[in-house]
Design a protein that fits this description.
It is built from seven helices and seven strands; from the N terminus they run βαβαβββαβαααβα. The chain is globular.
């Protein structure tokens, strides 16, 4: 037996633009149990074929690292009101865990990730496409802090990766998503205001307004 079709909302934007923060704020503003959040980081390709020492050196800010086919398959299942077995990615070993997490579709599914709008087949699954606009200086500062605190990377290494890999990928595959988004919000300043904007659009859609 399938559930009612959920509203699929894509939250995209550059690295450290504030997508995860926005998704959490939107979820908190909606009714308990109404929303699930899926991070596209779950869908990194497993790197079992590489020696362990080579895995952290890969460019995780490239679209090729995302298993878009599996993500599309799971979003299509949820869109049809059917549960999906979400992958669990082991960021320590850079591979997938044998366990999965079963998600029965709630009324609203928020999917956040860098490259969600770069692939036509993927972006067409979303009922609402939201782009988080944040200036490069802020995104870089956040990335420096995150990589130092969570990944033990030096500032030099992060800056090298940012300008050699992240910034070019952003210009090529992420920033064009702003032009096709249904809503552009700021990832700077008062992000609660941005979250209220998104919730307003969700309410319009779930009330039958603004449907494509």
């Amino acid at each position: 037996m399938t559930a009612a079709r959920p509203l699929l909302v894509g939250l995209s934007g550059g690295s450290c633009a504030g997508k995860t923060t926005l998704a959490g704020l939107v979820r908190d503003l909606l009714r308990p149990g109404e929303t699930a959040v899926i991070a596209s980081d779950r869908y990194y390709r497993p790197l079992d074929h590489l020696p362990p020492e080579e895995r952290p050196r890969q460019n995780f800010d490239s679209p090729r690292m995302l298993d878009r086919d599996l993500l599309k398959e799971h979003l299509a299942l949820l869109r049809a009101g059917r549960p999906a077995e979400l992958p669990v990615y082991d960021f320590r070993l850079h591979t997938r865990s044998p366990e999965t997490e079963r998600l029965a579709p709630p009324p609203v599914v928020l999917v956040e990730g860098i490259f969600l709008f770069a692939n036509r087949g993927l972006r067409e699954l979303f009922d609402l496409k939201v782009y988080v606009q944040t200036g490069e200086e802020i995104r870089l500062a956040r990335r420096l802090r995150r990589d130092r605190e969570e990944r033990g990377r030096s500032e030099e290494e992060t800056r090298r990766r940012y300008f050699a890999e992240i910034s070019p990928a952003h210009r090529r595959s992420v920033r064009p998503g702003r032009e096709i988004a249904d809503l552009v919000v700021s990832g700077e300043g008062d992000q609660e205001a941005a979250a209220r904007e998104v919730v307003g659009e969700i309410r319009k859609s779930t009330a039958g307004e603004g449907k494509k």
